[in-house]
Amino acid sequence: MVASRSARERKAAIEAGPLAKVKIDVGADQQFVYKVSCTVCTAKGDRPWSAYRPGDDNGFMAAMDRWIFHLKEKHPDAEAPCLAYLPAAQQRLHERRAALDARG
Ligand SMILES: [Zn+2]
Description:
With 104 residues, this protein is an alpha+beta fold. The protein contains 3 helices and 3 strands; from the N terminus they run H-E-E-E-H-H.
């Protein structure tokens, strides 16, 4: 059974920790779009820093990876359950880079 959008949103918010704001939209093709924004940082144009990734579990993982790297870089003292996934996130980043290299 697929968890509802709001249940996924709550779960993602808990994992992302207190600095994050997590929102799940439903895209035009009915797939989820995960948005993780930082409640502290602003990016260009005074908009909050955010990671925006479409896809159900893929989107969750990709948005959360981006958020984990953001936390490590900008908020090294922050605590969040998702930081437990840092080694896995780094491994995925490494694999993506390796795949790009292989493609030339
Ligand atoms: Zn931040």
